[in-house]
Amino acid sequence: MVEVTNLTNNPVDEEFLKKVAEKVLKGENAKGKELSIVLVGPEKIRNLNRKYRHKNKITDVLAFGKTDEFLSFPEEKLELGEIVICLQKVKENAKRFNSTFKKELVQVLIHGILHLLEYDHKKGGLGAKKMEKKQQHYLSKY
C-alpha cells in the first residue's frame, strides 16, 4: 500500500504518484509493501536534512527506511519506509535540467524507492551503475 501526504499548498496528482511507486515496487518484487510519500516545502526538508544527514541545505528527496529515527507516522508499521520530497526543489531542478516538473518528480520518487530497496550509489562502482540502470529503466516508462 502506498500513502501520499501533501503538506504543501501545491496540487499534485497523488494517484499518479501511487501508480509510479506501485509499478517500481512490482518491478522489484516488492508489490504490496507499505510505503509513505510525504510532499513538503523547503524549510521542512532542510530541517530534516540537517537533523538526519547533518547537511544544512535543501534537497529534493530524502528516504527513511523502516529502521531510521524519523518517520512521520511512527505508529504505523511501514514495511519499506518513507520518502520525503520537496516540491519546490523538484520545480527548480526541472528548470535547471531543462526538464518537466512531472519527469523530475517521477525521477526523485524512483530514486527514493530504490534507496529504500537498498540500492546505493554513494559508494560508486557497480552499485552506482546498477542503481542508475534501474532508475533509467523505470524513468523510461514516463
CATH topology: Collagenase (Catalytic Domain)
CATH-assigned homologous superfamily:
Metalloproteases ("zincins"), catalytic domain
Mean pLDDT: 88
- Portion of residues in helices? 40-55%
Q: Per the principal axes of the C-alpha atoms, what is the gross shape?
A: globular
What is the string of SSEs from the N terminus onward?
A: EHEHEEHHH
Strand content: 15-25%
Structural class designation: alpha/beta
Oligomer: single chain
Supply the CATH class: Alpha Beta
Largest sheet composition:
4 strands, mixed
Distance between the termini: 21 Å
Instruction: Count the E strands.
Output: 4
- CATH A-level architecture: 3-Layer(aba) Sandwich
